Amino acid sequence: MSEQRLTAVWVQDWMERAHAVFAAERVALIELDRAIGDGDHGENMDRGMTAVAKRLAADAETSQETPTPAALLKTVATTVMANVGGAAGPLFGTAFLRAAKATDSVSAPDGELDGHAVATALEAALGGLQSRGKAEVGEKTMVDAWAPAAQAAREAAEAGGDATAVLAAAAHAAEEGADATVPMIATKGRASYLGPRSAGYRDPGAVSTVLLLRTATEAALELSAAAEAAAGEDAE
């Protein structure tokens, strides 16, 4: 069997899943952010992912060409920047934009992404976040989820993992990273104003990172299952 590669269909499904998940988790994210922030993170992410899903669906109906994953990720980036308020918009938007640029340079000739390309995209996303937010690991921000995710993705790719395996490793590491923010005292962002009172909660941006990487993995698994089913039918 040929190595799995992710297509534009994956990005489309990923964003649809992210839209559904952020709608479902909106209140939980609001409450989490209210405890250590200004309480708007859940609303902002839900609004942003709704806009992304609508934009991609509209583009799919009118486009005459098959887009590459990089092209769709760039659309996601600009839509997030325009529709997600607070600090999350510029940060996640920059992450998606850097990921788009990275995948455009390391993807296959047809634009599809293998495990190494996915790892490179996640590393680029992390670099964008740190460049924009000036945050480091241990400061109770989304970087505490993205950094271990990027590292796990690279390790999985170097071990020969395909795109789905790389994403699964990243999602798992991100969840562990988000959990690790609970005892931290925030030194960046609005939560830092609370000092020691910021301890005891997961960082909302780190939780949103987990949701994004988890839905990315689910979409990749669905694409892989569809490809295997199609291959089975062809073999009959």
From TrEMBL:
Stored InterPro entries: DhaK_L_YcgS, DhaL_dom, DhaL_dom_sf, Dihydroxyacetone_Kinase
Cellular component terms (Gene Ontology): cytosol
Keyword Thylakoid carried by entry: no
One Gene Ontology MF term: glycerone kinase activity
GO biological process, one term: glycerol catabolic process
Domain DhaL stretches: 9-218
Keywords (A to Z) from UniProt: Kinase, Transferase
Protein name in UniProt: Dihydroxyacetone kinase DhaL subunit
Organism of provenance: Bogoriella caseilytica
Taxonomic classification: Bacteria, Bacillati, Actinomycetota, Actinomycetes, Micrococcales
